[in-house]
Amino acid sequence: MRSFDQASLRADFPILSQEHQGKPLVYLDNGATSQKPQTVLDRLTKFYTTENSNIHRGVHRLSQEATDAYERGREEIKIDLGLPGSGKSSHELIFVRGATEAINLVTHGLREQLQEDDEIILTVMEHHANFVPWQVLAQETGATITYIEPLEDGSLDLDVWKAAFTAKTRVAAFTHVSNVLGTVNPAAEMVRFASEHEVITLVDGAQALPHGPVDIGALDPDFYVFSGHKVYGPDGTGVLLGRRELLNAFPPYQTGGDMIDIVAVEGSTFREAPSRFEAGTPNISGGIALAEAFRYMRGIDWEAAHEHEVALLAHATEELEKMEGMKIFGKTVGKAPIVSFVLDWAHAHDVGQLIDTANVAIRVGHHCCQPLMTHLGVPATARASFAFYNNHDDVEALVAGLHKVKRFLS
Ligand SMILES: Cc1ncc(COP(=O)(O)O)c(C=O)c1O
Fold first, then answer.
1. Residue-number span of the structural domain to which 392 is assigned
2. For residue 364, what are the β-bridge partners?
3. 291 plus 245 within the same structural domain
4. What residue spans of 210-326 are helical by DSSP H?
5. What does the pLDDT look like over 375-404, one tens digit per residue?
6. Are 241 and 81 within 8 A, CB to CB?
């Protein structure tokens, strides 16, 4: 493991040395997508220059090498997430396009298992990806959804959440970390409580894994999902970790090549997970490069990275709170380095556009969390979200940029 030399880690991300009109890039939209280290970019190039071929079905050397790299990647990611390799763990790793597809795969799989009046528990801080698929599932099956609202500071009232469980509760889906509030939900306690009540759990880890490894083996949810592009890997990659027996009871999500056992004119039979859910040619280079991103993350001293992110968050919060008309949403202790805010003198969209002229990239809008925006009573917020490669100059640039926006608007 490398010591946490922030400047040298930052230098691993070529895009961060980019300038626009003489101004350095200040990238504070990591919640939307992360930047990629050179090793991940090199891995993609290496695949296409020396290994490119289709996997699982070729007998020639290239195909076997690509298959090995892809399957080795699957194993390595599992091990990094605290799950033993193939056949030995209770969970299978399915490569998908991202967290959204992973959740859709699960809700599709549950269509035949839920029935009228079954209950699903969600929170109001969910991203639409962990909201809409459940709504569709409820419409299709006649199940009902109970929504738990966050408290004033952005935390979940666990007593209220637990009290929502009834004899009819079948599923509890919740985000590990809120992409707007930064709240880190007590996933271990929630999974434990749900499994004591024999309720299926789905944890959306899209905003958790970018800030360090999660021991999913110890957490032991039924399903855990995340997106590759938020963990320093390529777009169009993602992971569904699911309990094997639950997955194998699901009907296939898509059908076609690679997921079949036997195909005959009389009908077809399907393989077990993970192949069961990986129909057709997958994103081979993406899966291999995602494993490279995990290899990169393995080299980071996450304890030191966490301390650094906490310091960035404290610095940003302190400076932003000094600004006139500032309101920050999400004030839980130990939150992820995400600051969502509104200013009473400007619309979030104007803030986002004007600060971009200083080459400071932040996110503005509803962040795919419209129910949460309604709960907070705002149409949109501005959001600065940090990664370990950000530094205190980035925070200063954010604050200076906001002051410039204020001067411009007045
Ligand atoms: C908490 C959370 N869940 C799910 C998603 C959806 O991820 P993707 O669009 O990569 O599928 C996001 C994306 O911002 C997110 O922040």
1. 6-30+301-409
2. 382
3. yes
4. 216-219, 244-249, 284-298, 302-321
5. 999 999 999 999 999 999 999 999 999 999
6. yes
Alpha helices in 143-243 (DSSP H): 158-163, 187-196, 216-219
> Active site includes 369?
no
Instruction: For Cα atoms 51, 54, 58, give the angle at the middle one, nearest 5 degrees.
Output: 100
- The response to whether residue 127 sits with its C-beta less than 6 Å from ligand 1 reads yes
Give phi and psi for 214, each to the nearest 5: -120, 130
CA dist 159 and 162 (Å) reads 5
DSSP reduced 3-state for 326: strand
210 lines ligand 1 (CB under 6 A): no
Of all atoms in ligand 1, which is nearest to the CA of residue 179?
A: 16
- 19 and 161 share one domain: no
Task: Kindly state if the Cβ of 206 falls inside 6 Å of ligand 1.
Answer: yes
Same domain, 394 and 245: no
**Going by CA atoms, what residue is nearest to atom 14 of ligand 1?**
32
User: Tell me, what CATH number does 59's domain have?
Assistant: 3.40.640.10
Ligand 1 site-directed mutation target among 126, 184, 203, 204, most atoms within 8 Å of CB = 204
* Same-domain pairing of 288 and 330: no
CA–CA separation, 262 and 253 (whole Å): 17
Which stretch of DSSP H or E encloses residue 62? Answer: helix 61-80
**Each residue of 1-41: pLDDT tens digit?**
777 899 999 999 999 999 999 999 999 999 999 999 999 99
Catalogue the E-assigned strands of 97-149: 119-123, 144-148
**3-state SS assignment for residue 201:** strand
pLDDT digits (tens, 9 = 90+) for 334-374: 999 999 999 999 999 999 999 999 999 999 999 999 999 99
Q: How far is the CA of 205 from the centre of ligand 1 (A)?
A: 9
- Contacts with 129 (C-beta within 8 Å, 6 or more apart), sequence order: 99, 100, 103, 204, 206, 368
Residue 368 CA: nearest ligand 1 atom is 14
Of the residues 30, 181, 207, which should be mutated to test ligand 1's pocket, given the most ligand atoms within 8 Å of the CB?
A: 207
Cα–Cα distance for residue pair 282/262, rounded to 1 Å = 20
